Each structure stands twice: as C-alpha cells, then as structure tokens.
Amino acid sequence: MTEKGFSQGPEDKYVLVTGANSGLGFSICCRLADEFLRSNASSATLSIIFTTRSARKAQDTTRRLEAHLRSSSSSPAETSRVRFLPESVDLGSLLSVRACSRKVTATYPKLDAIILNAGLGGWSGIDWPSAIWGVCTDLLHQVTWPNYKISPIGILADNQTANAPVPQSEPALGSIFCANVFGHYMLAHNVAPLLKRATGFSGPGRIIWVTSIEATLKFFDVDDIQGLKSATPYESSKQLTDLLALTADEPGSAPWAVDSFFASDEDGAGQLVEDDAAYVATSTPTMHLAHPGICATSIVPLALPLIWAMMIAFYGARWLGSPWHTMNTYLAAITPVFLALSSNAQLDDAEAPYRQAGGGRPKWGSGTTRGGAEKIFCTETAGWGYAGVVGTPVVKADELRRRKRGATDLTAEQKEDFLELGRQSWKQMEELRIKWDAILDEAEQAQ
Ligand SMILES: NC(=O)c1ccc[n+]([C@@H]2O[C@H](COP(=O)([O-])OP(=O)(O)OC[C@H]3O[C@@H](n4cnc5c(N)ncnc54)[C@H](OP(=O)(O)O)[C@@H]3O)[C@@H](O)[C@H]2O)c1
Fold first, then answer.
1. Distance CA 290, CA 294 (A)
2. Would you place residue 266 in the very low, low, confident or very high pLDDT band (cuts 50, 70, 90)?
3. What value does the mean pLDDT of the chain take?
4. Which of 2, 44, 206, 387 could bond to 113 as cystine, CB 3.0-4.6 Å?
C-alpha cells in the first residue's frame, strides 16, 4: 500500500484512459470494469484513471461510470474492486499535459496501460452533394472511407506559453496534431517511469494508441507531420499515430523510440523518479495500436435526423459485408480493452502468426459479423499490409474478410518504405518533444 492508500500488488491494475466523458472513451472505462471483474480473481482490484477537460465533466462522468458499475456488478463487494479516479488534461495545452503528468506520477504507484483515446476531428462541415451521391452509389466504401468531410487548413493550437510571465517564442503547433498525437506523445513520455513499474504477467506497461481505419499513407506527408498544409489533418494525425505505434519496436526507430523516448527516468519535468534506474534497461513499455471500427459518437457533430440516417447507412454497410461497422461504442471498445487487460501470453498468441511470418505489430480493430457478433480483427493498412507480413495473408480469416477497394498484397519495397517513414516520424517527434520541453522549462522557470 502506498502512503496515498493505493495498493500495488501484482493483481492490482492501474489503467489510464484519456477523453472519457463521451463516446468511445466512456465505453472503454465501462468495459474495462466489466471485463476485469469477469476475468480476475476476487482479490484483484482495478483503478481506472480517466481524464476529462473540466471539473463538471469529471463529476458527471464519475457519476455515470459508478451507475454503470452498480448495474453490471453482482454485489457491493464486487463493485468495491473497481475505482474510478478523475484527472484533468487538455491535450491542446502542453502545460496542462505537464501538470497532469506530474499529478499522475506523484499519485499512483504504477500504470499497467494508458489508452490514448481522446481525439478531435476538427471538421468544419460536410460536402453534402458529394456525401449523398457517394452513399447512394457506393454505400459500403463511402461510409467506411469517406471523402466528403471538410477541414480547414493550417489551424494552430493556442499559444502555449502566452500566460507565462515571460512568454517564450514558439514554433508552430497544429491544433489537431497537438490534441490527437503530440499531447498524448508528451503524456506517454512523461508517465513512462510509471509504465516501467508495471510488472507481472502483463508487464511492462502498455501504451495503446487509438487510431482510425481511415488512416492511410495518401493522407500523410513526412515533410509536414503536423498536417499543417493538409486538407485532411485528422486523417494525417491518425496515419502518424499508426507509423509511431507500428514501428516503435523496429530496429530503425530504436535510436528515437527505445533509446530516447522511453529511456528517461524523469517525470517529464526534470525530476528523477526514485528507484527507477533499475527498470530502464529491462522494462521498456510496449506500444500497441487499436481502432474502434466505425461507431456513432459526437466526433462528427450531426443533427438527430442525420444521426438516424447515418445509423441506417451503417446497418446497410454491415449487411453488405462491412466488418467494421461496430456502431455501438461498447462493442467498439473491445479492442483497446483487450490490449489493456490481456496477459503478455495472450497478446503474444494473437501476434504469433504474423511474427512467425516475418511481420511485426498488428493494427488491431474492432469489428462485427453480419449478425453483429463482436470480433477483434487485424486491419490491412497501406504500406504495412496485415501486420507487416509481405505477400498473401497468413491468417485465413484475414484473407476472407472484405478488403478496401484497390488493396494489394504488401511488397517488400512497400514495407521498407513504411519502416523508413516510421523512422523519420520517430526522429521528428523526438526532436519536437525535446524542443518543446526546453520551451516549457523556460516558461516554468520564469514563473
Ligand atoms: N467514432 C468513430 O467511429 C471513430 C472511428 C475511428 C477512430 N475514432 C477515435 O476514437 C477516439 C474517441 O473518439 P469518439 O468517436 O469517442 O469521439 P467523441 O465522443 O467526440 O470523444 C472525444 C473525446 O476526446 C476528448 N477531447 C477532444 N479534444 C481534446 C483535447 N484537446 N484534450 C483533451 N481531451 C480532448 C473529448 O473531450 P470534450 O468532450 O471535452 O471535447 C472527448 O472526451 C478518437 O481518437 C477518434 O479519433 C473514432
């Protein structure tokens, strides 16, 4: 037991989830609680540390999560094994990310997993003629890989040090890039010492990025990793997410991933976390990638009649053979929850067919059968195929699943290019992190 009253036995799990007040994030918290209670010994406890952007949202989310737990558990004794612990972070503010990282590092004994779920679409509208034509003529593809969302170009995050006594000169920081990728990247780096302290059958700690099926290389330019010149900055941010997560443990990325991003034993604000040095060499956290399929949330804000129309279109796509129309956020949460709670042996088993065929990390996704039965699938992705395996699919179920139109089997050259993009992305992200940490240090010292 820590002095703050947190138990830290191998059976006690700590999972952090960002953006938990709505949509997928809320369902991830509910499902974490349900699956943990279903599959763990009656002495084991789960602490779900969730983030929102305000005290009001934190309070409301705690109330709703506790109501869910009471309704789904069988006794008060069972209910008492899960705790919901609110924290606050605005991922568009790097000082807020620092404050949250410090609070988490100072409060909790370890982190078994962090689920980087919060996300911002940033769309300004929908090209309705194109959407209606696309849905009427090519339903399945248009509601899986839509090309009718409109995004403003070059939107910047607010000035990061404007409120400091001596504001620092700042490089440009894209708003969607910061909320979806860079804020999470800084958070994960800062709490890495706690991830390294997770041991046992699922340790070291896991960083689970939430991506999208829409991420694809055509939306990404390695000379513009923030997507500032892009008309599809959300999709660009998700492709960058894929590159970082899928190449984190590849040798080409090691100088920036394992040797730099994970090497620190500081809490992101220059303070050494005690007893940590011993863990650094042996307990590098692992990165994993999950997407929720396609579910109905407020990430694309629509009026109620349009939500109904969207749901009918989603059912149509599922009926036509789309494996990705999960629709319901609880069902969509299956993949991130599996990645957070399963043992290393279970994860290794799931990855084994791909690893044995020369592949690497899979992009796992939530999906369903036509009848709505939930499944976790390996997602075919441009440049990485099925988990980086060159040639035809090695898992029968992958071969049978409906593919994106125009998808072709991965070639060795495409894989090489993907690994190189991953290497360059890791390098740029680490350089940006180091640059921004110095700017934030100066802003804090001036206070
Ligand atoms: N819905 C889908 O079909 C779908 C498909 C693929 C991927 N995803 C991914 O799933 C994740 C969750 O999205 P969702 O569909 O559940 O959308 P959502 O209901 O809009 O939830 C987004 C969450 O992220 C939080 N958030 C947004 N910007 C933030 C910021 N700057 N700092 C901190 N928190 C922030 C939101 O908080 P506020 O309420 O305070 O804004 C909210 O809690 C995202 O990463 C999204 O890209 C969703």
1. 12
2. low
3. 92
4. 206
Confidence check: pLDDT of 277 > 50: no
pLDDT band of residue 402 (cuts 50, 70, 90) is: confident
Specify the fold of 13-445.
Rossmann fold (3.40.50)
Strand partners, 116: 209
Beta strands in 96-232 (DSSP E): 113-116, 125-126, 149-150, 206-210
Reading phi first (left if > 0) and then psi (alpha if -120 to 50, else beta), residue 270 is in left
Q: Where are the domains of the chain?
A: 13-445
Q: Convert the pLDDT of each residue in 132-178 to its tens digit.
A: 999 999 999 999 999 999 999 999 999 998 877 766 788 999 999 99
Phi, psi of 331 (to 5 degrees): -65, -40
β-sheet bridge partners, residue 363: 289
Choose one of 16, 18, 24, 237 to mutate for the ligand 1 pocket test, by most ligand atoms within 8 angstroms of C-beta: 24
Whether ligand 1 lies within 6 angstroms of the CB of 22 is answered as: yes
Q: Which of 422, 404, 410, 437 is nearest to 289 (CA)?
A: 422
Atom from ligand 1 closest to the CA of residue 116: 45
Q: Work out which ligand 1 atom sits closest to the CA atom of 294.
A: 3
pTM, entire model: 0.95
Q: How far apart are CA 91 and CA 113, in angstroms?
A: 18
Q: Is the CB of 120 under 6 A from ligand 1?
A: yes
Secondary structure (3-state) at 41: coil
Residue nearest (by alpha carbon) to ligand 1 atom 17: 299
> How far from the centroid of its chain's Cα atoms is residue 2's Cα?
29
- Is residue 351 within 8 A of residue 357, CB to CB? The reply is no
90 lines ligand 1 (CB under 6 A): yes
